[in-house]
Amino acid sequence: MTIFHILQKKDAVVLWQDGVLLAIKYPDYFAKCKGNCMILKQDILARNLTALLPQSSKIKLISIEELVGITENYLPQLSL
């Protein structure tokens, strides 16, 4: 069992920096995620991983500006 199994629709997961690799390495985690799953677009582009993202992925690419809005709307926040 992973943390993705306990997420609810009101939760959000944002991957950035090397965390974006989780979406490539463990796509099944995100396929089962009930929360809003997002990846910082600039980190995917910086690592040239766009082509490796699963086509069926529910993960949304977001900008740094969108990240600011997300951090304003989701409380509390934790980092793993």
UniProtKB/TrEMBL annotation:
Supply one GO BP term: tRNA wobble position uridine thiolation
One GO location term (cellular component): cytoplasm
- Tell me what this protein is called: Sulfur relay protein TusB/DsrH
* Source species: Haemophilus influenzae
Signal peptide segment: none
Q: Which InterPro entries match?
A: DsrEFH-like, Sulphur_relay_TusB/DsrH
